[in-house]
Amino acid sequence: MTEKDILFNNPQQVVDFAFDDAVADVFPDMIRRSVPGYETVISLLGVLAEQYAQPNTKVYDLGCSLGVATLSMHRQTRTLGLKHICVDNSEAMVKRCTSRLKRHMPDADLTVLCDNIEDIEINNASLVVVNFTLQFLAPESRLSLLKNIYNGLLPNGALVLSEKLIFEDDAENQSQIKWHHAFKSANGYSDLEISQKRVAIENVMIPDSVETHQLRVQQAGFKESYQWFQAFNFASLIAIKSST
Ligand SMILES: C[S@@+](CC[C@H](N)C(=O)[O-])C[C@H]1O[C@@H](n2cnc3c(N)ncnc32)[C@H](O)[C@@H]1O
Fold first, then answer.
1. What pTM was estimated for this model as a whole?
2. Is residue 116 lining ligand 1, measured as CB closer than 6 Å?
3. Which residues are CB-neighbours of 211 under 8 A, at least 6 positions away?
4. 210 vs 184: CA distance, rounded Å
5. Segment 70-91, tens digit of pLDDT
6. CATH number of 1-244
C-alpha cells in the first residue's frame, strides 16, 4: 500500500528536494495530491501511445520515477514489438520502478536504466514521454535534450512533454499559484507543508511558460506541436516529427 506523504508536516530546516528513498516511498501519494490532473495525464498517455507507437520501435519514459506512465502506455497499446526504455537518475526510484514494472508487465520488453536523461542515446523511437521532468534540468540544458529526442524519433513519432507552468501575465500567474495552493489544501496538505515543500523545491525545479516550451520544441526541429492538456498550472504538450 502507498505511504502517506507527511515529509513536510513538521517544522524543519528545509534542504533542497531530492528524489531519495523517503520521497520514493511516498511518491504515488505525493504526486497525486500535488499535481492537478496527474492521473488523467497518465491515463491519456496510454491513449496517445496507441496513436503513435509503431511496431518494432522504442518507447522512452524519461524521468520515469516509478514507471506509472510506462505501465499506462503498455496497458493501452496493442502495437507489436515495442521496447519500453525507462530512465531515471534516482537509484531509489529505479529500484522500485524495476520491481513494480517486472511485476505488472512481466511479458513486456523492458529496460530500466539508472542514468541522466541528458546522457542517453535515443534511437528508433516512435514515442518519447518526458512527464514532469524537464523542469528539473538546468534551463540551458533543455534544448539539447529536446534536440536529442527529435533526432532519435522516427518520422511520425511523437514527444509528449508535461510540465508545471509559469505564466507571462503576472495576474494570471498569481491566480494559478493560488489555485494550485487551494488544490493542495483540498488534498489535505497544511499551509506549513505547502510552504516548506515550496522552499525545498524552488532551487531544483524551474518551470517555464508554455510559450517558452513551444518555442523550444520548434527550435529542436518539431514543426507540429500542440498543448493537449492543462489543469491549473500544469500542462502537457505533444510535438510530432513530420513524415518527411
Ligand atoms: C516529478 S518526477 C516524474 C514523474 C514521472 N514521470 C511520472 O509520470 O510519474 C521527476 C523524476 O525525474 C527524475 N530526474 C530528474 N532529473 C533527472 C535527470 N537529469 N536524469 C534522469 N532523471 C531525472 C527524478 O529522479 C524523478 O524521478
1. 0.97
2. yes
3. 168
4. 22
5. 999 999 999 889 999 999 999 9
6. 3.40.50.150
Q: Which atom of ligand 1 is nearest to the CA of 68?
A: 9
Give the distance (Å) from ligand 1 centre to CA of residue 244: 32
**Which pLDDT score is estimated for 13?**
86
Judge if the beta carbon of residue 133 lies within 6 A of ligand 1.
Answer: yes
pLDDT, tens digit, 9 for 90 and up, residues 156-197: 999 999 999 999 999 999 999 999 999 999 999 989 999 888
What size, in residues, is the chain?
244
Give the pLDDT confidence score for residue 184 in this predicted structure: 96
Q: Tell how far the Cα of 63 is from the centroid of ligand 1, in angstroms.
A: 3
**The cell 489543469 sits on which residue?**
231
Whether the CB of 145 sits within 6 Å of ligand 1: no
